[in-house]
Amino acid sequence: MSSINPAGVGRSGFVERHAPWTPAQHEAARAALALVAERNIKTVRLAFADQHGILRGKTIVADLLPSIFRNGCGMTTTLLSKDTSHRTVYPVWSGGGGIGMSEMTGASDFVAVPDPTTFRVLPWVDHSAWVLCDAYFQNGEPVPFSSRYQCAQQLQRLGAAGYDYLVGVELEFYVYRMQNSRHTIADSATPAGPAPEVLPLSRGFQYLTETRYDELDPILDRLREDLLALGLPVRTLEVEFGPSQCELTFGPVAGVAAADNVVLARSAIKQICRRLGLHATFMCRPALPGAMSSGWHLHQSLIERSSGRNAFMSTQDELPLSADGMAFMAGLLRHARESSLLAVPTINGYKRFRPFSLAPNNIVWGRDNRGAMLRVIGGTDDPASHIENRIGESAANPYLYFVSQIVSGLAGMEQQLDPGPAVDTPYAPGSELLPRSLVEAVAALRGSTLFEAQLGRRFIDYLLTIKEFELHRFLSDEVTDWEQREYFDVF
């Protein structure tokens, strides 16, 4: 019992023994404890991003934070076994938690180790703060199913090659007025439950018009204020094309912090809206009249660690990117199908890939062309030169989205691949297509030797099992509106 933290959470001295902090993390921890006292913080939310990029965790009284910083906090390993309906996919009561890992036997705990550099006071909650955690097994080994861990591993590979990963974010989402939350006992009897009934806050189809923005200004202003108070790099909050559709953009941030910002922003937006009687969703294509698809456009470049220079900046008039930038882009194209599951993880997300829709369907690149999967922005001696990947859906796990880009792009650079010529007609037939369904995406990732080599067969199989469980429920258990319309009367 001496190894158990007297407070009942974590394991004594776990952080120092197994997950030692950097000097920057130690300084951030001291600053966080001072802020707790200064701001009279009462509770702290310990959060970790699960396999779907959804934040889960525990809320502790603030007095426990020094102990948590030393010992971590125990959380149930079954949280790593769930699909998007929160159903447990793996037979957790079998040996190895159904995944073949003794550390997960018996629904045991893993240890959540806080990263104090992510500590933030929550502006929409009185006397509360938030900190993001990394997942470790009790023997001190990192949990290999942690998407933040997988992202950190790929960023280390990039760092060993002499680069940092710089990311800007464009994230589309919807904000509706809540009409009926469907929180009756009957409606709450299943894991997912029925979707809430909502009404739009604005009419659609008037992209970037000032009058439509003004309709949404009260909520967008509140979101802007709270997101900036969290220290997030907000650049714009805009009205998009669909009714009540919005877009959030972040300025460029390096490394895992860019992914941390996305999971925090999505969770914050949903919570702030809920408290205002609204419903925010990052679902790609809501099943509502007039709803347009929401995408996540990922703007990316590499920064040379030795010089701080943009490694994608071209010095040749005939090339929009440097040789490394062109090779990185070629890797994104070469491995687009096998990596698509990491950028588009839901059944719903593949309904976005339609021609002539400002979403890609062909695996092509273009110069400042919004119909192409990859849009190259910049030119000769332009330090802002970068690649915009338009494949992602807004619900994507940001850590795995980044992984898909780094693994593919590095492979392109290592092999000095050629992306071929740019296209002017991105929807023209003849190019290789993106997967048209989650079924195709699962098959493509399963056959990927590149991603197996970089992420490991265990992680690939783990992720595919969860996605196939969702597919099985959809294809075998659910009767869709389409089936009802197609067959109910004719047969």
Using brief descriptors, characterize the structure shown.
about 500 residues, alpha+beta, six-stranded mixed beta sheet
Protein architecture, described:
The protein has 13 helices and 15 strands. The longest helix has 21 residues. Strands 7, 8, 9, 10, 11, 12, 13, 14 and 15 form a nine-stranded mixed β-sheet that branches. α7 crosses α9 and α10 packs antiparallel against α12. The chain is globular. The mean pLDDT is 93. With 491 residues, it is α+β, with helices and mostly antiparallel strands.
Helix and strand content put the structural class at alpha+beta
The count of DSSP E runs of length 2 or more, i.e. the number of strands, is 15
The average pLDDT value, as a whole number, equals: 93
- The ordered string of helix (H) and strand (E) elements is HHEEHEEEEHEEHEEHEEHHEEEHHHHH
Largest sheet: 9 strands, mixed
Number of helices: 13
**Which stretches of 5+ consecutive residues score pLDDT under 50?**
none
What percentage of amino acids are in beta strands? 15-25%
Shape: globular
End-to-end Cα distance, whole Å, is 67 Å
Radius of gyration, taken over Cα atoms and rounded to an integer in Å = 23 Å
Helix content: 25-40%
Question: What is this entry, summarized?
Answer:
The chain is α+β, with helices and mostly antiparallel strands. The protein has helices at 14-18, 23-38, 65-71, 147-160, 210-229, 256-275, 323-334, 336-343, 398-415, 438-446, 449-455, 457-477, 481-487, and strands at residues 43-49, 55-61, 73-76, 109-114, 120-121, 128-136, 163-180, 197-200, 234-239, 245-254, 278-281, 295-304, 365-367, 374-377, 386-393. The chain contains 13 helices and 15 strands.
